[in-house]
Specification:
heterodimer, A: 558 residues, alpha+beta, 6-stranded antiparallel beta sheet, 26 strands, disordered N terminus, B: 115 residues, alpha/beta, globular
């Protein structure tokens, strides 16, 4: 790594005694205490801050302290020293100044920023969200929890990945291990690599050079964590991955769903975690050439074990919440599509007036009506798909599309419903079906209709009501069904009223239905469709509808 | 769950008596599953619906669905005990022409035994 970290005695970075430098290189970020002067910067390895890049001169710059002020001085570098983008020779530094040495953008230093303790992604993230104050005593893992809370508030997509990466960074920092991986169990129980990072903050996508057998063993064991020093175990030292990849120390922490609160006192926190099944594992390792990580305190590992599991569990909950929210959105979209289907542009014709209205119950229903004007006359469709919800709405829109296109093509009504029936029965869409009525009225008052399982339409002439009774089976139930149409003749002033069964089955508080008889008498007495709706709502008097009510009325004017 | 079903065998014919509501959802599903299970071992079922207070469009779909698949596999379901409402629904939907409907359970059983 191309830098050294200076740790002054008993001084926390950014504690106020010494100013801090935040050194940022790619995704990596480190806090360095400016606890002596001059503080040297360059490519040579003896510098306080070593930046291993050819554009950085060997002796590039120094930061010096004078009368409590710090300034940066260029040491005759080839590619220059920059403060806030401006090339400088000597410049007194202010808080938050951005220093660049030869390399621009790839690596830079922030001088003594406001919030310096920790270089955690979570902290950066949080500091961008106003109103959240983090005490400097907050542990990294507590910060992660805060991060998660914030992420939840923002409805962040892919929050789990963010959490895993941040968790790995924190763990690597705490254990000082070289590499870290998180494995999560799939639904089938197999482990999959969910995240990998090295201490430089670079992503590791390949898990071939780590010891999978140690992960498997840790998962099988009941331990909170497993620390393996391969140099002390002949058994392990012989293992292929250990030998091939020169692994010295491996720490593996099974991630168990937090079921009970684990005690952290007296170092006996193990027993209470036993029952929970592992949902994955957190694995870190170091190689022989690197530092020994076996000395990491058990307290830290225990803290990671408990916090990490609950973090991941929480993150998963956030994801589930997000999925549920999206599903709700989809439902809302489905509902609006259904509303769109019901929003019919009623064609204007000189010989008739058409009106239609739908009273929806709470759920998305499968009612729709449609009107198409062709040279053959004005065609009206009223349909009710069985069931409710998205499946009914889906089927309704398919049905509407099929009927609409065939009406436009001026197909005979019987052929249309036969084709729709064939389509529905051949597609094996379960027990879903639709009752459909299609009527076509010509300018001369001749009306043809085909009724497939619908409540019989009402022909209102003056104060008399006729119920033409010719009906057929619904479409979509029986593949060999044969359909017949009927004809009648309208006189000027006659009305042809079609309703869905939501009307006749509208219930009042006593459990009585509106019934055909009431429908007929209100239709005979009324002048318009609105009277029918008024009668329904008077009848129900507050009892909510259990099905959509749709009424379509055609007034023949001649 | 508002549908109860009792199964008994009379004169070698399986009779399923339904009580309650046959509606879209778990009731319709339960009816379908019960009949499908019975059809694995018998080819003749009498469905007594005299205790059924309500059948909605979903329930009707299930009834037709099970009936059709029974017929296509060589089995048969006969209906009995239809209330006025169910008769009306079958009349409106013309499904009365599809089902074999008998006034009493005995008549339905006898019809099976004649064949």
């Amino acid at each position: 790594m191309g830098f050294q970290t200076i740790t002054g005695p008993k001084s926390e970075p950014g504690s106020g005694v010494f100013p801090a430098l935040i050194f940022v290189q790619g995704n990596d970020q480190h806090t360095i205490n400016l606890d002596h002067s001059p503080f040297t910067v360059g490519r040579k390895v003896d510098k306080d801050l070593v930046i291993a890049d050819p554009r950085v001169s060997r002796d590039h710059a120094v930061i010096v302290s004078e009368n409590g002020k710090f300034s940066v001085m260029d040491q005759g570098s080839k590619h220059g020293t920059f403060v806030n983008g401006e090339r400088v020779q000597n410049r007194i530094l202010e808080r938050n100044d951005r220093l660049e040495f030869g390399v621009r953008d790839i690596a830079y230093v922030i001088f003594n920023p406001q919030h310096v303790s920790g270089s955690n992604t979570a902290r950066e993230f949080l500091s961008q969200i106003s109103g959240i104050h983090i005490s400097t005593e907050t542990t990294d893992l507590e910060k992660l929890t805060l991060f998660l809370e914030a992420a939840r508030k923002l409805n962040t997509v892919g929050v789990l990945d963010e959490i895993l990466v941040t968790l790995l960074d924190a763990t690597l920092k705490l254990t000082r291990a070289e590499r870290g991986y998180i494995f999560l169990k799939n639904e089938d129980g197999a482990l999959r690599l969910a995240a990998g990072r090295n201490a430089k903050g670079e992503p590791l996508l390949d898990d071939k050079t780590m010891s999978r057998s140690i992960v498997d063993e840790a998962l099988k064991s009941n331990s909170e964590f497993v620390v393996t020093d391969t140099s002390r175990s002949l058994d392990l030292a012989g293992r292929q991955s250990i030998v091939a990849f020169d692994l010295r120390t491996v720490i593996c922490i099974p991630l168990r769903k937090p079921q009970v609160q684990s005690t952290r006192s007296e170092g006996t926190g193990t027993a209470q975690m036993l029952a929970a099944e592992a949902m994955g594992a957190l694995y870190v390792d170091s190689r022989f050439a690197s530092r020994d990580i076996t000395s990491v305190s058990n307290d830290i590992l225990r803290a990671i074990a408990t916090e990490a599991a609950s973090l991941i569990e929480n993150a998963r909950l956030v994801q589930a919440e997000e999925a549920a929210r999206r599903y709700q959105q989809e439902l809302a979209i489905a509902a609006s599509i259904q509303q769109g289907l019901m929003a019919v542009t009623i064609p204007e014709v000189p010989f008739a007036r058409l009106s239609g209205r739908n009273l929806s119950c709470k759920e998305i229903g499968g009612d729709f009506f449609d009107a198409v004007n062709t040279e053959d006359g004005l065609a009206i469709v009223l349909a009710d798909v069985s069931g409710k919800g998205v499946s009914a709405a889906l089927l309704a829109s398919t049905l509407q599309g099929m009927i609409y296109s065939q009406l436009t093509a001026r197909m005979p009504l019987v052929d249309i419903v036969s084709a729709v029936n064939r389509f529905f029965t051949q597609k094996h869409i379960g027990e879903k079906y639709a009752t459909v009525i299609i009527a076509r009225v010509c300018p001369d008052g001749k009306l043809e209709y085909v009724n497939c399982g619908h409540v019989p339409p009402l022909l209102v002439s003056g104060h008399s009501v006729v119920r033409p009774s010719l009906g057929n089976v619904p479409v979509g139930l029986l593949k060999d069904a044969i359909y017949e149409s009927d004809h009648c003749h309208l006189k000027p002033g006659d009305r042809f009223v079609m309703v869905t069964d939501g009307v006749t089955e509208a219930e009042n508080a006593n459990g009585d239905f509106f019934e055909d008889s009431r429908l007929e008498s209100v239709a005979a007495a009324s002048r318009s469709m609105e009277d029918i709706f008024t009668a329904i709502s008077d009848f129900c008097s507050g009892t909510p509808l259990s099905d959509d009510c749709t009424v379509v009325e055609l007034l023949y004017t001649g | 769950m508002t549908l109860k079903m009792d199964t008994h065998v009379t004169e070698g014919i399986t009779v399923v008596s339904c009580q309650g509501r046959i509606v879209f959802g778990e009731e319709a599903t339960e009816l379908r599953e019960t009949l499908k299970r019975l059809l694995e071992t018998t080819r003749q079922i009498v469905l007594n619906l005299s205790g059924v207070t309500y059948i909605d469009s979903g329930g009707l779909g299930t009834l037709v669905g099970v009936y059709s698949s029974a017929r296509s596999s060589g089995a048969d379901i006969k209906l009995t005990g239809l209330g006025q409402r169910l008769r009306d629904v079958l009349q409106i939907t013309k499904l009365v022409t599809v089902f074999e409907v008998y006034d009493t359970e005995q008549e339905a059983i006898a019809a099976f035994r004649r064949h």
